[in-house]
Amino acid sequence: MNKQISRIIIADDHNLLVDGLKNCLNNTDGLKVVGTANTILQCLDILSEQQADVLLLDVQLPDGNSIDIVSKIRQQYPTLKIAMLTSFTEPSVIRRALNAGVSGYMLKSNSSGIIAKGVHLIANGQFFISPEAQSQLESAPMQVPSLTRREREVLHLVVDGLSTKEIAAKLDLSFDTIHDYLRNLRIKLNAKSMADLVCRAKDQCL
């Protein structure tokens, strides 16, 4: 009797990591990498051509934040399990991924053994979050910050994808003023980067 093989697609733009991950998973019983992608667009193309059981997604790809497409992929491929494999440890990013419906969240800093175990469990219909990611969630209970009207206005434009220069032009304010607003927003939302700021805004429905 043939042992069932779980087919994996990896979407990540760091080729050295992808090569190492492919080697790890292909040498794990019951797992086989059947495709890789460097961008969201490539990922969607591969999914339309290659049947898979698990999709491993990095949060930030060159053409966007992959959490934004999780719901779309789940609707189009209801049997596909999606897991994040990323370096993002911010609780807001983890929560947003979980809210989008992923089946797992693992960190690139995790050992190959933990990643392989997680992929196995996810392929078999179980949920898996690495101990490190779980610890990050538990250490930062979600709080909704108090924002001014202008801060909310700037934040909404950031979420819409506008650059600092574009926001300044749209609001008829100086670049430095918008820069200050963004700095204050990162402080209030405890965001370590612009990508994290967007994730926290969406996570908390601000």
The main β sheet shows up as: 6 strands, parallel
Average pLDDT, to the nearest integer? 89
The low-confidence runs, each spanning 5 or more residues with pLDDT under 50, are none
The counted number of beta strands is 8
Overall spatial form: elongated
Count of discrete alpha- or pi-helical segments spanning 4 or more residues: 10
Which range does the strand content fall in? 15-25%
Instruction: Please state the structural category.
Output: alpha/beta
Ends distance: 53 Å
Instruction: Going across the biggest sheet, name each strand in turn.
Output: 2-1-3-6-7-8
From the structure above, extract its key features:
single chain, 206 residues, alpha/beta, two-stranded antiparallel ribbon, 10 helices, 8 strands, elongated
